[in-house]
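OP here, attaching both records as promised.
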Amino acid sequence: MIIGAIAFYAPHYLVYTHKPVKSDSIVLFLGSKFTPRKEEAFKLIEDGYARYLIIPAYGKVSDAGLFTGQPGEPKLRPDTAKARGGAASALQYPKYFEDTHIEVLEAKKMIDKAGFKSAIFVSSPYHMRRISIIAKQVFGTNDYQLTFVPSRFEEYKGGLWFLNGRDLKFVTGEYLKIAWFMVYRFFPQNNYR
């Protein structure tokens, strides 16, 4: 009975979410389902929650004034390639760091450089718990206002998720990545913040 309940609710734990609040920036994470994540980030900008979009994997901080397109069809103007920042180099981090951890570390550098104190983190629903765990470790708890908003444009499946091979792989993978982060964050040479 207990194992069944844990299996049934396992994806619900991963979907960590806050109501969006006005912030300095939105941090957008890359992934296999980037379009729904991008749509969420643009919707939050369109709704006035932040003026700046940070894409740490690309080393970009873009002003919302650089966006064009009709509501629901956001597009980056071609000149956003000139946005300030520099692409992250995974080579500067230990090989055992996974991509999300590197993106959070790069986001912090970019947020600090811009002088921001608040950010909305946007990704897929199942990805949000891991992002929040890593972000709280990297950013600390007092100096920043961090908000976590999963994409409403990506389908979230609860219930019998374990009967779908893709969902089973994704949910299991998220738990394994959380467990790995919880282990390696205590490694002696892990002094990245």
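Record two, same layout:
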Amino acid sequence: MNCIPPVWPVSVPGSTVGAMKTDELFLLSDAALRDVIDRIDPADFSAPAPQEWTQLPSPTLRDIIGRHAYDEAWIPDVIAGRAAADGDPFADADLLGDDPIASYDALNDAAGTAVRSGQFAETFRFTYGDYTAADGFSHLSMYRAFPAWSIAKHFGIPFHLSPELIAGLNEHVVPYADEWRQWGVFPPAIEPPAGADEETRLLCAVGYWVE
């Protein structure tokens, strides 16, 4: 399974304790990305997306959402302990079809239902290594929350991360940002502007913020 971009490391830190469980963080992050995708102007699906968002050549927004759809499709399997090495039924599938938003929403519904069941394997088997379920959900959350903000910002969609999501990311991600950064996961940290709010400070800590 390729739940996060292949540039992500073989050995990475994670957080398993705190006020918010990482499966709850995942659900908040997954909802944030869906909120953004649901408000994409269909005309923008053919628009170019920043190359740094993916290893695909000359990506469009549809390409980016297609990778997120692939990730959503894998959630029920990955939380059950299965991996792409066992067979990848989604590798060559067109998961977006003629109605990308509706198709993505259906995959999102299935992923959310699987996670809310509370039935998780002890180990999540990603393409870059095996991790505890708690750490795995933290990884998956990053691939949703920060792209949600970036997509919205780039394509002019009004959007803010919720206070609950910001708190969860501050708990489970920010303390390890420098370690992730050593592997190229996050860009360099940014000095927050004067009077920055909590969302801006979070995004600066992981190098995502732009004016």
